[in-house]
Hints:
The complex is a heterodimer of chains A (436) and B (114).
Chain A: H1 5-15, E1 19-20, E2 35-39, H2 43-55, E3 60-65, E4 70-71, H3 76-81, E5 90-91, E6 103-106, E7 109-113, E8 118-121, E9 126-128, E10 131-134, E11 139-140, H4 150-155, H5 164-175, E12 181-186, H6 196-211, E13 216-221, H7 229-239, E14 243-246, E15 254-258, E16 263-266, E17 270-271, E18 275-278, E19 282-283, H8 286-290, E20 300-301, E21 315-317, E22 322-323, H9 331-350, E23 359-368, E24 371-382, E25 385-388, E26 394-395, H10 399-402, H11 406-429
Parallel strand pairs in A: 1-9, 2-3, 2-10, 3-6, 10-21, 12-13, 12-18, 13-14, 20-22
Antiparallel strand pairs in A: 4-5, 7-8, 8-9, 11-19, 15-16, 16-17, 23-24, 24-25, 24-26
Helix pairs in contact in A: 2-9, 2-11, 6-7
Chain B: H1 3-22, H2 39-51, H3 69-81, H4 89-95, H5 100-110
The complex binds flavin-adenine dinucleotide.
Amino acid sequence: MTLHRRDALKVLGAAGLATALGRRALAASPSSSGSVLILGAGFAGASLAWALKRWAPSLAVTVVASPARYWTCPFSNTALLEPDTTDALEVRYGAFQAPGAPTLIRAKVVAVEPEHRALVLEDGRRLSADKLVLAPGVEFASDAIEGYDADAEHRFPHAWEAGPSTLTLAQRLRAVPDGGLVVMTIPPNPYRCPPGPYERASLIAWWLQRHRPRSKLLLLDGKDQFTKDSLFKAAWAARYGNLEWQGLSDGAGLRRVSARENLIETDFDRFTPALANVIPPQRAPALLRQAGLDGGQGWCPVEPTGFESSLARDVHILGDAAIANPMPKSAFAANSQGKACAAALLADLAGEPRPAPVLLNTCYSLVAPDAGIAIVGSYAVQAGKLVTLSEGSGLSPSRGALGTQGDAVRAAEAAHARGWYASIRADAFREGPPWP
Amino acid sequence: MTCIARGWAQGLSRLALALAGAMALSPAGAAAPSGVPSAVERWAAACNGCHGARGEGSGAIPALRGQSRDALRATLLAWQQDEASDQRHVMVRVLKPLDPALLEGLAQHYGTPP
Ligand SMILES: Cc1cc2nc3c(=O)[nH]c(=O)nc-3n(C[C@H](O)[C@H](O)[C@H](O)COP(=O)(O)OP(=O)(O)OC[C@H]3O[C@@H](n4cnc5c(N)ncnc54)[C@H](O)[C@@H]3O)c2cc1C
């Protein structure tokens, strides 16, 4: 169809004039300019922004992230044991002030317009660019649990977003009387950080063992299998007589909660615990679903080379919000996807084919403060689909396989987990000493 | 949105944006964003996720930058051939799918020349 200039201007007028962050070169060669606009400065968005700047310093890169403070979820489970360390989880984005850094705008985004590659900010500003990348993390599906209202969220804090709610859960744990029952409810797949609930359970059991020896931790799980389950269950059997896990087939599926009655109701049972940590099911944020980017599935489908939306051209979706199976929703995966997306965007802007993505994941989990286990995944695109490379993937060895080396190996992996955490913060947020 | 509708909307928005761009506050004629990363650069960036933004390492995770090329090459090769039964299983697995040219490229990228 032919479009007259007048019509185009009318469209613009109706939509409001976009503040274009760079010029889309229609006539000129594809590499003559470029701009990328990113929603989210979590592990996915920040990693992408810095990868772009590393490889194309002159590219116009703008990141919009909520003015709310941001604490990393990784290592927020250990903060339950040492609440004083919660402060250290906060990312302060200092490197974004340096010359040559991506432009960081702290503002709430209220709408996404995929067809314009545009974001609408709370203050009415509208930004657009050649490429739009969306990495807003998750939203909690409070309507998925009967009775889960604001009171329930307050009574049964999830702490599945780190920060003040981590502190709340840590304080509530300290208020549990000896002998009091602690319950965790764990959602069915998929959700942010598949091993996270089991790491948290291990650390809570460790704490209870020392400080509330007559208390018990009951895990009510919405599934029958979970990641690293053989390793977690072996660690629990060896360490934590105070921990009991029940799966979906045991009747542990969550039916209803009630803040007023302090009630957790499963398919088979009812509990009135001293403390409940209810981790709600999750989905892509409404912002993306309202823009039609989830295709009605709750999470956003993407192609796996550059994480471009399957439903909108030049719109890419990274991190927890995307469907990137078999990659888990983890900070490690989000960081890896950010770099793969950066390479694809630069290839697009240069008019070259997108290179094969390098996609990795390692989820370390602590089964005690000084004992870690890990799962490694390497991924490749085959016939347009993301697959796990079996030779590049696997679990920490079992205690049986380790023999007398067991404790030393678990301690080494706990140390690796801590090292990884410092490194990924340096890589994703450019924390640490200034760059030359 | 159907594909046709989407294509139409996109055509429209591109034109709209091109026009908007002419009036935009953006830096006119930004320099070329060169730098599609090579395979070695993409792999090195992946290493940085655990070894730090400059391969500087942290705590129990060793630095890659600053090792000699020969030492780094030897470690990478030894681990790639390892059977992954202990605490090094993460690196042993991550390195398995890499071809020799990439391993050499990483040794060159991070290692200090002799
Ligand atoms: C308890 C726990 C422990 C975990 N441990 C680990 C671990 O050990 N290792 C690991 O790899 N992963 C771990 N994870 C998972 C990890 O935290 C997530 O996978 C990761 O944060 C996903 O990154 P993201 O960039 O997709 O989203 P996020 O990190 O959630 O970032 C989202 C960004 O989008 C912004 N945003 C969202 N909506 C808006 C809006 N409307 N306007 C403006 N900005 C907006 C936010 O401000 C933020 O900057 C853990 C998670 C939990 C809950």
